[in-house]
Structures are given as structure tokens and as C-alpha cells.
Amino acid sequence: MPNTPIRLGDNVYPNLAFIGAGNMARAIIAGLVKTGYPKKAICVSAPSLQNREFISNTYGVLHKEDNKRNAKEAHAIILAVKPQMMQEVCLKLKNEVNLKDKLVITLAAGIDTAQYKKWLGESVQIVRVMPNTPALIGEGMSGIFCPLQTSEGAKLFVQKLMKSVGEVCFLEDESQMHAFIATAGSSPAYFFKFMQFIEASAIQLGCSKEEAKRLVLQSAKGAILLACEAPELSFQTLADQVTSKGGTTEQALNTFDKLDLEMTIKAAMSAAAEKSKAMSISFAEDNS
Ligand SMILES: NC(=O)C1=CN([C@@H]2O[C@H](COP(=O)(O)OP(=O)(O)OC[C@H]3O[C@@H](n4cnc5c(N)ncnc54)[C@H](OP(=O)(O)O)[C@@H]3O)[C@@H](O)[C@H]2O)C=CC1
Ligand SMILES: O=C(O)[C@@H]1CCC=N1
């Protein structure tokens, strides 16, 4: 039986069981704790004591070795293991925990909600969330897909939960998840790689390592804040504002065009979306 949810003022905080103590669990837990989710209402389980203790010590939440013990006491179970581990984790949960009255939220890429019903039982209440790591600092972007039967209460709960670590977007159709993963789930990595390459080039051009990082970070932060403050301006207009005719930026952007940066990015995003589709198909086939 789950413990009674913690109440603080008018707010009720269901107990959350995070299954998995990796990057994504950590990012969401950090974001939740920062926004005041009660630490004692959050528990994490994973095989590695070191990883569990790291999250527990850093954010003050509970930890358990055993998924079963964690899930039993929770109102909502958050599946934060790699897709390849998901079947094993789900089948064990189904056998060991009464999932009736519990909400299951999965963060995994490439596994459709229909698949979870095969693993966890047709009646399981499952919601799919695709977050990203900036949730760690409350700046995440999460896509939420709720199958038809999802209760309004569950939808609102997931919306509130993920809003506390960033922005949310409801997906009407699960097939939209492939584009969402390519555009938001994976994209922080694209921006980090872009910054990494600018930093390395700056060093080659004569900047010190520290200077290069500082210049990249502040310029990227400035550019992003500027774009956020002027949503009416297209990205093209913002780029035009930097580009003087016959000047330095023009030379850099011409080089992007010559080497077809746009095509490279399109190809990379298609690869991410295609991988998501292929994973969904392969999980469905493996278990048909
Ligand atoms: N990283 C990201 O940016 C995003 C990830 N996701 C999704 O989130 C999920 C987790 O990804 P991420 O956090 O990056 O992965 P990590 O590899 O960082 O973490 C996976 C965690 O799962 C734990 N684990 C493995 N087996 C079990 C088990 N049997 N029971 C409980 N826990 C187990 C691992 O344990 P241990 O600590 O012992 O190794 C580890 O803590 C994936 O499905 C991914 O698709 C979604 C959006 C973005
Ligand atoms: O790389 C992945 O598969 C996961 C999903 C989106 C970000 N990380």
C-alpha cells in the first residue's frame, strides 16, 4: 500500500518512485526538489548503490535497492531505465506490484504505450513523457502523450509534474513522438556539440581554453535569451541582424552554406527520428 500523499498547504504531493538513477531521473528529481516537491515523497531505485546514493545525498530524496519496494509505496512510478532494460523491469513490476490505482510514467525513447500494456497489463494507466536534461535547472521541454483512456486527473498530474521542471507540450498522436525526440529530447546534445566545436576552433585561432569557454557560453546564452525575448523575430532575422554586408559573419555563414550545414542538421534529425521509429517497430515485433 502506498503511504498517504504528503500535503503542503493546498497542494497534495503523490509519492513518486523513480526506477533508474541515471541522467534523466537525476535531472527531473533535481528540478522537482528545486521547485519544492517534498524530498520525502521521492524515492529512487537502481542496482548501483553509488548512483542511488549520489542522487539521494545530492537532493535529499530516499533511495532503495529494490524496484518492488520502491514501486509498492508510490502513487506514480516513473520508468527511467534505458529502453533495452524496460521489458525486464516491467515484467518484474507486473509480477511483484499491484499496479491498480498507480500511474506509470515512462521516459523511454522508442517504446510505444501499447507495448507497455503488453508488459504491464491492459488495464495499466500509462503516460509517455519525453523530457530533456535541462529539466535539471527547470528549463526542460517535455512532450506528453496520454493514451485515450487516461483520466483527466492523471493528465493534470503529469502536466503539473513536468511543468515544474520546464515547458510541456501535449502530443495528440503518439507518432508525433518521433519528431519530438529529434527536436527536443535529443537536441540539447546538438547545441552542446555546436558549442564544443566553436570552443575548439576558438582555441585554434589563439584563445586560451578558459577564455574560449567563457566566450562561447556567454555568446550562446546571449543569443538564446535574445531569441527568447523576441519570439516575433524569425531565427533568420536574428541572424541577419548580426551579418554586415561584406563583413566577417557573412564569410562564416557562406562557409556553412558551402559545406551544407543545413543538410547535415536535417540528416542528423532524420536519423534521430528514424531511430525512434525503428525502435518502436522492433520492440513491437520482439514481443508480438
Ligand atoms: N538522457 C536524456 O537526455 C534522455 C533520456 N530519456 C530516456 O530516459 C531513460 C533513461 O535514460 P538515462 O537517464 O539517460 O540513462 P542512464 O543510463 O543514465 O540511466 C539508466 C538508469 O537505469 C538504471 N537501471 C538499469 N537496470 C535497472 C533495473 N533493473 N532496475 C532499476 N534501474 C535500473 C541504471 O542503474 P545503475 O545506476 O545501477 O547503472 C541507471 O541508473 C531512457 O529510456 C531514455 O530513452 C528521455 C529523454 C532524454
Ligand atoms: O538518446 C536517447 O535515446 C535519449 C532520448 C532522447 C535523449 N536521449
Describe this structure as you would to a colleague.
The mean pLDDT is 95. The protein has twelve helices and ten strands. The chain is globular and about 70 Å long. The relative contact order is 0.10. Strands 5-4-3-6-7-8-9-10 form an eight-stranded mixed sheet, sandwiched between helices. The chain is of the alpha/beta class and 288 residues long. The chain has two domains: 6-185, 3-Layer(aba) Sandwich (Rossmann fold), CATH 3.40.50; 187-268, ProC C-terminal domain-like (ProC C-terminal domain-like fold, Orthogonal Bundle). Bound molecules: NADPH dihydro-nicotinamide-adenine-dinucleotide phosphate and (2S)-3,4-dihydro-2H-pyrrole-2-carboxylic acid. Residues 16-110 form the Pyrroline-5-carboxylate reductase catalytic N-terminal domain.
Q: Give the beta-strand count.
A: 10
Using only C-alpha atoms, the radius of gyration works out to: 21 Å
The CATH architecture of the largest domain can be given as 3-Layer(aba) Sandwich
Number of helices: 12
Shape: globular
Tally of discrete structural domains: 2
Question: Can you tell me the residue ranges where pLDDT is under 50 for at least 5 consecutive residues?
Answer: none
Order of helices and strands: EEEHEHEHEHEHEEHEHHHHHH
Q: Give the CATH H-level superfamily of the largest domain.
A: NAD(P)-binding Rossmann-like Domain
Percentage of residues in DSSP E strands: 5-15%
Strand order of the largest sheet: 5-4-3-6-7-8-9-10
Subcellular location: Cytoplasm
GO molecular function: pyrroline-5-carboxylate reductase activity
Organism: Thorsellia kenyensis
Domain Pyrroline-5-carboxylate reductase dimerisation: 174-279
